[in-house]
What we know:
With 287 residues, this protein is of the alpha/beta class.
Amino acid sequence: MIxxxxxxxxxxxxxxxxxxxxxILGVKRYSAAExxxxxxxxxxGTVRVVVASDLHCTRFGSKNRRLIDLxxxxxxDLVIVAGxxxxxxxxxxxxxxxxxxxxxxxxxxxxxxxxxxxQKLSLIGEEEFNAYVNELGSHVRIVNNDTFVFKGITIKxxxxxLRMYRDKLSNIETYxxxxxxxxxxxxxxxxxxxxxxxPTFAPMYREIGADLIIGGHLHGGIIRLPFxxxxxxxxxxxxxxxxxxxxxxGKGKLLVTSGVGWHALPFRFLNNPEICVLEVPxxxxxx
Length: 287
């Protein structure tokens, strides 16, 4: 009987930790040395970038004030929003406007790439969706399969086709090629960032030639186990690889953020919400 009560206590403790973890906003920082392609920290200046992803309509305080204030407190030159701000319901557009209104009022330059949930929202009707996108355009720079140059950094946003999120893919290379959607980076001396909501396909993004690939979508594996990492992916695969952190990817780096919000259930375990602060080399190290 004692063992049963111990098990019940452990389960209740785990559930408490999981719920509390969804409300503790963290800040993960990456230095210019970590992000430099060659590992040489002698970059000519840096640009401070905040990355936020997978908000999923989660609010931290009234009108998301706590999240917006936390982003502003990092004094970023630029904010990159890496998709899934919403949960694909028509009413979610009000949340999105509220969040981007807050960033605009703080005077923060913002770029935004759509995730799978923004694309699902487009299914409600072309006219309504276009109106929503046009309204956002006065607040943020939307970089769906587009390029934005900012202070010695070239940013490309890769809009991953919606079917890539739906299918149980075994050989995605047979019908998805990133360079068919967006041009490769030019050899212009800038630091090159590719933002693609789902980092699962990062090996296929190499042809685009990014120094840094930024993604989210995986929610850090939702439950993180010590020494193992994330437990489950959005495709319901157990123990997915590279769900959170900074990784080597070819000649560049891959940054995967566990994101800010939660979807379906308010549940995270040893995996608190985070924004990432990057000190990006304004010129490639070694150039």
